[in-house]
Design a protein that fits this description.
Number of strands of chain B: 4
Largest interface: A-B, 56 and 51 residues
Strand content of chain B: 5-15%
Order of helices and strands of chain B: EEHHHEEHHHH
Oligomer: heterodimer
CATH topology of chain A: Cytochrome C Oxidase, Chain A
CATH architecture of chain A: Up-down Bundle
Shape of chain B: globular
Order of helices and strands of chain A: HHHHHHEEHHHHHHHEHHEH
Largest sheet of chain B: 2 strands, antiparallel
Strand order of the largest sheet of chain A: 1-2
Distance between the termini of chain B: 38 Å
Structural class of chain B: mainly alpha
Helix content of chain A: 55-70%
CATH superfamily of the largest domain in chain B: Cytochrome c oxidase, subunit III, four-helix bundle
CATH topology of the largest domain in chain B: Four Helix Bundle (Hemerythrin (Met), subunit A)
Number of domains of chain A: 1
CATH class of the largest domain in chain B: Mainly Alpha
Helix content of chain B: 55-70%
CATH superfamily of chain A: Cytochrome c oxidase-like, subunit I domain
Chain lengths: ~600, ~240
Amino acid sequence: MSDEYDNNKSYQAQSSEVLDGSAGSINPDMDYVRPAEIPEQDLYHAHSFIEKWIFCQDAKVIGVQYFLTAVFTGIVGLILSWLMRLQLGFPELAGFMTAEHYYQFVTMHGMIMVVYFLTALFLGGFGNYLIPLMVGARDMVFPYVNMLSFWMFFVAVMVLMASFFVPGGPTGAGWTLYPPQTILEGTPGSGTGILLMLISLSLFVIGFTMGGLNYMITILQARTRGMTLMRMPLTVWGIFTATVLAMLAFPALLVSAIMMTLDKVLQTSFFMPTILKAGEVLEYGGGSPILFQHLFWFFGHPEVYIVALPAFGIVSDLISVHARKNIFGYRMMVWAIVGIGGLSFFVWAHHMYVSGMNPWFGFFFATTTLIIAVPTAMKVYNWILTLWRGNIRINTVMLWCLGFIVTFVNGGITGIFLGNVSVDVPLSDTYFVVAHFHMVMGIAPLMVIMGAVYHWFPLVAGKMLSETLGKWHFWITFLGAYSIYFPMHYLGFIGVPRRYFEMYDSPYMTSTVGMNEFISVAAFIVGAAQFILVFNIIKTLKTGKKAEQNPWKANSLEWYTSTVPPEHGNFGERLPVVHRWPYDFSVPGAKDDFIPQTTAPSEVANTEVEKT
Amino acid sequence: MSEQKIDGFELKPGFKGMASDTGSDQTMFKGVHWGKAMMWIFLLSDTFVFSCFLISYMKGRGSTIVDWPNTSEVFSLHVGGVPVPLLLIAIMTFVLITSSGTMALAVKYGYEKNRKMCGWLILATAVGGLTFVGMQVFEWSKLIHEGVRPWGNPFGAAQFGSFFFMITGFHGFHVSIGVIFLFIYTYKVFAGHYDSKKRGWFTKMKGDYVEIEILGLYWHFVDLVWVFIFAFFYLW
């Protein structure tokens, strides 16, 4: 710092937001914050074990319930991916697996990971836990419906899991469930399996709507005094925008699920064209399979950002805290999140370039798709500029954040390839696509989840996770994930098709054997490495070091609760009053390198500190 | 729009006012009960559900290989041997729109703490909704009687029955849910739960007359959706 500043000068602590230029003069109204306009929330306190831990209305408990349920389904998805990799890398060891099994595993892995794991984890898990704490509310505005939301999700997961045990097994139509083959005989699980899948998705949408209404309204209508929208942590912005997307995108999924259920159960022909089967015309006729694709991707593309935006938000906060610097371009970050959210509704048909459409349509959707790269790139630059000359702590959380940036840029660049129609057509349905979306919406958000777990675990459990185990976990996952997905790009370029059970005597068989074996081994190791975290959590809960309040020296409200972990009602007798944004780190002249959001301007305005 | 003050916050009209509300702390919609805001957001989401249904219907109707049935014949009612198109639908629509009117009045009397009037008007709304559902049941059974099924019908494209039963069924489901809540609220109003701020059976939240307005929002929405369904199915 010494070159830029006059050595004899002393500095006044200020944040750009609070004192806008009027530094020095003490304004008597400096600390004024408007009085409360909403009445104190009338909380219903639990009286029994069941009300406290099972049918609980406390958003924090609901968040943990969501988290654990989502992790459970995630582990199921992980095991399915192992089985797939076993078949692809070492088919001779996977003799028990038929092609039908393989399709079922592909389908369930995809659906579980996208909807039941990532969406539920980010919005249900982190959303529930963090929103009320970060905006300074005592709980979600409608705790009862919030509780129903989790139990609806729980039932949806149970229905989904039940499909593994019905005759015919779960559906094997691919996670996109394209008709007509999804519900026709010959596709694995075209009987009960697909029905349970559709019912489960509908339940998920209903459950999510209940939660999503709570997340949105808590953010819009129940912030604490002084908490303006532009003082909210980016985590809240990310989760908020993702929730808006979900509220508008899930309807399309619900409608397509209802219509397909009717096609299956009542032989309607919404999505079913005239079909010849073994020379016989089926009952169906006159429907449009492309209609399903439009509905599905109108949901499916925003869904990508429902997963990505909370990750963007959370990682911004983590980077800022652990680099001890304010987030670079906060407003730009907010607008980028909102802009990406808005644009995500106008790109869906880039998943359908090979479905057959008017070339002008493809042109339009390619253009909108590539425009999304602009706000996304802005965000990446801002993360890097936040790190630039920051006081970076290379701890586990920061490692995950750095891993995220690299992985995300990687997956994003391949997205630019696939967004162009002429490049996408030869690459579509190859391993290049698999590599792309796993990098950008699988591994990258997962890295943020891991970082967030290491970051907020001290708050949730009151104990510090082991850094050593965390670093092992990170490096194995990071290097392993690259070992899995980097070669897949190559496989895609040479044309290896995805979703194939076996390559038989195709040229791919001979030239890719070694690579497939390598990918599979890496996948086994990475999957196993995730249990380091499970072990770490169990060990920490038993013998871990007790966390002090606010161990990371962060500014946002969740670290300033009356107790750690926070109790029902979060903030004790008085709600916090917010005076600044949550990014006042390393403010020149301030006593500490962080100024909590609750610190009034007068407390820091005239604390002139000699520069050291 | 008249200017109001809410706890030291001046509500300004126009775009400037919107910007200052948005930029303020605590709430974005000043003076709006959270439940009302929540219902509005839910209705926005529900609008997307019905939009998806109706757009699918347009697409489905536009791309069938068989001609669409002549709707003015299919939906006509025989009165004294003469087919009268749109008769039943006109009555159904009238009943439903009227129930919107009684609902609006119920909200007004609710805020005036006129418990009796409020209760009777909600009951009237519930009865109107129930009548609507009853007539829908009649129409469905008539069509089923004439051979219209979700998977086919004697008048033309099979998709006619599919879309008709699905979309009017989904709307009828909304009306039925509304009717159930209207009856519950009737009881709660007459029992004075909103005056005594009695806690809800499940939610454990203190009752307030704003709940009637929230239910009213839902009810008006259901009516509005019906107008679109009416236009798309019966007039197209």
